[in-house]
Write a structure and sequence with these properties.
Chain lengths: ~450, ~450
């Protein structure tokens, strides 16, 4: 799905949701290629919350958009990425899906006007992990789930759901004011496949998740030791009441979103079941109608045909519900989990800040003691203390940076959530209303024939 | 359910369906006590296809009905029966349901104005079997199924379904031009419970189903012997092409009706499942709404409430579908099975007619031979022949009576079927259209709030 990202750097508005512009663009769907793309990809990912400032292909006439102002004139820097054409590669247990990632841009950084590379899920995963490593405090856009039940893994529906989610993922990164500047993004979008594969395996070897797990274990052990030394039984936590409220909100939000998504999935199934029953019913009615004949038989056959027509509409709506409602909800559950990961990073940073501050304090006390005693070890202690102090100041800076970034990210998240979930639920209600309207019409249509019997 | 049966006896129109009068009455529902009864008993049984000629209780003002003409003036003989108030009697495996059968009539045969007796399923079964025994050729109104899954046997829904079916059953008998004159009907409607029980057990002893099965076996053996004697390998069957067509039609009708009923039952379940899912979804939405707050939260809570409201409507429509659509279909499957029973009686009668005719012919030939030989056994053979001839003529008369009655019954059945099934499917389409209309309204109602986000 082609996403248009306005990269002009104009302060706070940039990259943030402009809901009305978004919805107007969404409804107008007046961009030709967008139209064709939208036909193929029902779910407009949250990244669309970026202002549609530019047209999507070179062949379209310039900028007929709905957001006037400094961002509309053509010539603005833009980048549009689409994840397309899933293809099954390899055989047996080695098989996987590869995607065509097309980057269209007028910026030299992205080797415009167009660059096409082949990527697989592990490449997206590599990008995600690199960004999570380097950009603490930022809510890294979430990936779709890694594993899937074996027999489901290559079903058309699953492949489409994953493709859509990966497209959302990469475009969120490209529309993030900070993340889009990352080297790793450029590597992902531009490198040839073999080089990408090599980069991926190297990283897997040295800075693998496993390795960072080991580092994390060391850090945990360190913390525990410090805790014991400092006489603390439980890990150090922030006591900011506002932050407490936020943490509770995030945990509640994840629960309720997950429950809603589960119910949405069940609704999809119910639609399918009802559709199937209506089809079977329609078939039985037609047989009954053929057996009867004359006016009664004709009325039955009509009823049967209506049943079969409505069955198709129900299946269609079930698919619509899945792609444009259930999947967006699932996506937001993952987004909230990404926030929790950032909260864990913040907690770690806070703990380090506290520990190093304590350690530095103890070293200062020790230094003063030694200096008082005119000990020879004083010089060593002073060096030690200064190092510790520098480390502590760095840890404090890191923590404060995360806090600041998180606040900006939260504001951005809330805006996007309101727009995205508002849209998803709007689509839900609209789809349900349309389906019900069609059903009512269909059944009302057979009433005259039945009354005439 | 109170049924009004016009017992005045002018020719063919009596007791036959007058569909337009029926539907008009049904829709007007202007009879006060009918209204209250109809509230309790959603399914208007096919017996209503009898003209509503009279008001239903003494307290109503006379005859405001929709069928003008000679049948409307008050003072006409009428009988109305209702099967009400199912009550569980006894304990453990001995427990059963008893019903209050109320007969309102202005005719002395029915000990009017009102007679109330207590009856149980076995009493209805007794009446059915007596009528089936005595009135060959008539499609005896069918009973609801005898057995039921143990744990389902006392569920409210099953009890109501059975009560409704028994009410339909007794009123069909009371509105049948021939059956309503039967002594057994009067016994059923008027006798005290102890006497009814005694009658039932006596019948069970002597003329039990078991006994008639034994008689049937004798008849079958007899037929087989005759067949062998007559050199026939297979039983004698009518060769009337019209009747062949009818038999095929009846068998096909039973299959298609049964399949349609099965699908209708499944549709009921789908409605219930969807309703349950919507309720769960609504609950999750409300929790999500409470967690959010402000405009997004309020929109979510609204959506959740709508979901819960629609869930109730779905459950209601599921019940409506069950009582007013699925049960009538099941009832007609049973009615067609009753026709098949009559067809079996006709086949038996035909076979007897053929066999006795053959036997008589052989005896005549034998007699002629003996008379030619001036044998002394001629006299005996003459008596034997005359007896056989009388039996044969009787068997032929019986068969022809069944054929005549069946033709009348078939015409009546087709009319009733058109009206009853037409109504049932009309109710189906109407209920579905109304439900869908309400659903469309509900979801459209939340759109403005979501658009305003």
């Amino acid at each position: 799905m082609m996403m248009i990202t306005n990269l002009q750097a104009s302060g706070k508005g940039e990259g943030y949701t402009s809901k009305s512009a978004f919805l107007i663009s969404f409804r107008k769907r007046n961009l030709r290629s967008s139209k064709s793309l939208l036909r193929n990809c029902a779910f407009l990912p949250p990244a669309i919350t970026v202002k549609f400032a530019m047209i999507s292909t070179e062949s379209d006439p310039p900028a007929e958009t709905s957001s006037p102002g400094p961002r509309s004139p053509s010539g603005q820097p833009f980048v549009m990425i689409s994840v397309t054409e899933p293809v099954k590669m390899g055989t047996g247990v080695q098989s996987y899906i590869s995607y065509r990632v097309i980057t269209k841009s007028n910026m030299t950084e992205f080797e415009g006007p167009e660059k096409i590379v082949i990527r697989r899920y592990s490449d997206f995963e590599w990008l995600h992990d690199k960004l999570a490593e380097k950009y603490k405090g930022i809510f890294i856009p979430p990936l779709p789930e890694k594993s899937a039940v074996e027999k489901f893994r290559f079903s058309a529906e699953f492949i489409e759901m994953r493709r859509q989610a990966l497209d959302v993922f990469i475009n969120r990164i490209a529309s993030h004011p900070v993340l889009r500047k990352s080297e790793d993004l450029r590597t992902f979008l531009l490198e040839e496949e073999e080089r990408m594969e090599r980069i991926r395996s190297i990283e897997a070897g040295i800075f693998s998740k496993k390795s960072s797990d080991i580092f994390q274990m060391f850090k945990d052990v360190q913390s525990k030791v410090s805790d014991v030394v400092l006489g603390k039984e439980k890990p150090v936590e922030e006591s900011d009441p506002e932050y407490e409220k936020l943490k509770n909100y995030i945990f509640e939000l994840e629960n309720h979103l997950a429950e809603t998504q589960k119910q949405a999935f069940r609704l999809v199934k119910r639609h399918r079941d009802l559709g199937q029953s209506l089809a079977d019913f329609g078939k039985a009615m037609k047989l009954l109608g053929a057996c009867e004949g004359e006016s009664l038989g004709k009325a039955f056959s009509d009823l049967g045909s209506k049943g079969e027509i409505l069955s198709l509409k129900l299946q269609k709506e079930a698919h619509n519900l899945l792609m444009n409602f259930e999947e967006p909800l699932k996506d937001y559950v993952r987004a909230v989990q990404s926030i929790k990961a950032t909260m864990a990073d913040r907690a770690n940073a806070f703990r380090q800040h506290c520990e190093l501050a304590e350690t530095t304090k103890l070293k200062e006390i020790n230094l003063d003691k030694l200096m008082l005693m005119h000990s020879e070890r004083a010089r060593e202690a002073e060096t030690d203390f200064k190092e510790s102090k520098a480390d502590s100041e760095e840890a404090t800076k890191r923590f404060e940076a995360i806090v600041k970034t998180m606040n900006e990210e939260l504001a951005r998240f809330q805006e996007q959530k309101t727009a995205d979930l508002g849209l998803a639920f709007h689509e839900f209600a609209k789809g349900q209303a349309k389906l019900a309207h069609d059903i009512a019409d269909a059944w009302r249509g057979v009433l005259p024939k039945l009354e005439a019997l």
